[in-house]
């Protein structure tokens, strides 16, 4: 940058805007109207401009105010510069998904990827054929870390805890739970009772390898306990195991529905009250105005709204 900062200390850049309006209107009165200022204020600005440039700039003639040679040169030099400044301050950067290229990296919990991934990819293939999407596994306990260090543009999961001031967070939806099982291995008479629920072995997905979760806390309030025999790292392994092991798995209702539709496993409502799970979207505050990221966020929101309202995917 070859700008000498001290040269601007005595210059009010608003004066340059006033000068250009004066040169365009060739009248203090009309310039004041365009600038929404009083005539004395514009006259005072003209006096300061004359002092700044050591030139009369506008000279009163019989035909009105006429610009000096210096004024015309200033107009030629300043007008393009102020147009660039105006564009930098106020013009919205355009983004056309149909023609834009680029790559997004979205972190998703694996069950969110099972549920949302196919719908989002289908929508992007249709509306943004040149944009690439990388879906990465994200630990719901490590959302801010993934944003800060792992190159993630956006995260979609049930993120735990709060977040730093530089992180934005928006709830996308909330949902209940369903139990998934193989009816050929687990003979359940519906509706599922609490006795049946605690009688059969259970599979859970635990990002920390724990054998208990929010379901067990709800059971504890009922003075009941289930037998969690297997703790898995990912939901994607559940269908294959449930077709081989006489066990139940309690999971968010959307992924339960997705798994049952594609595998022939059956779903049923848990016999206890469970608080709903919230699916959130997180991103960096510095990208609030990024038009490409805002488009991706709106695409994800549209996909989820369509699925949650049982409408055909976009």
Can I get a quick summary?
With 314 residues, this protein is α/β, with parallel strands linked by helices. The chain is built from 11 helices and 12 strands.
In total, how many domains does the architecture comprise?
3
Shape estimate: rod-shaped
Instruction: Estimate percent helicity.
Output: 40-55%
- Total number of strands: 12
Strand content: 15-25%
Q: In sequence order, what are the helices and strands, one letter per element?
A: HHHEEHEHEHEEEHEHEHEHEEH
Instruction: Give Rg in angstroms.
Output: 32 Å
The termini sit apart by 48 Å
Structural class: alpha/beta
Outline the biggest β-sheet. Answer: 5 strands, mixed
Low-confidence stretches: none
CATH superfamily of the largest domain: Periplasmic binding protein-like II
Give the strand order of the largest sheet, numbering strands 1, 2, ... along the chain.
4-3-5-12-6
Examine the coordinates and then state which fold CATH places here, giving the name of the CATH topology of the largest domain: D-Maltodextrin-Binding Protein, domain 2
């Amino acid at each position: 940058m070859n700008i000498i900062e001290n040269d601007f200390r005595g210059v009010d850049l608003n004066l340059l805007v006033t000068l250009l309006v004066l040169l365009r209107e060739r009248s203090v009165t009309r310039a004041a109207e365009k600038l929404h200022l009083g005539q004395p204020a514009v006259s005072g600005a003209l006096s300061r401009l004359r002092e700044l440039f050591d030139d009369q700039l506008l000279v009163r003639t019989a035909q009105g105010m006429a610009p000096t040679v210096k004024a015309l040169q200033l107009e030629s030099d300043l007008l393009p510069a102020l147009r660039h400044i105006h564009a930098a301050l106020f013009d919205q950067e355009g983004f056309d998904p149909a023609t834009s290229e680029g790559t997004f990296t979205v972190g998703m919990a694996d069950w969110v990827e099972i549920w949302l991934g196919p719908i989002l990819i289908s929508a992007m293939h249709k509306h943004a054929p040149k944009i690439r999407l990388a879906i990465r596994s994200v630990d719901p306990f490590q959302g801010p870390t993934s944003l800060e260090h792992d190159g993630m543009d956006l995260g979609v999961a049930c993120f735990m805890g709060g977040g730093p001031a530089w992180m934005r967070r928006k709830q996308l939806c909330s949902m209940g739970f369903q139990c998934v099982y193989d009816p050929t291995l687990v003979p359940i008479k519906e509706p599922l009772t609490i006795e049946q629920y605690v009688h059969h072995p259970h599979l859970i997905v635990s990002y920390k390898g724990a054998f208990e979760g929010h379901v067990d806390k709800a059971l504890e309030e009922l003075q009941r306990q289930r037998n969690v025999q297997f703790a898995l790292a990912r939901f994607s392994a559940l269908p294959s195991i449930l077709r081989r092991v006489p066990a139940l798995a309690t999971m968010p209702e959307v992924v339960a529905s997705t798994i049952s539709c594609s595998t022939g496993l059956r779903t049923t409502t848990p016999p206890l009250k469970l608080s709903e799970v919230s699916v959130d979207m997180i991103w960096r505050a510095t990208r609030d105005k990024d038009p490409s990221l805002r488009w991706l966020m709106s695409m994800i929101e549209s996909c989820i709204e369509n699925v949650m309202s049982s409408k055909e995917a976009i």
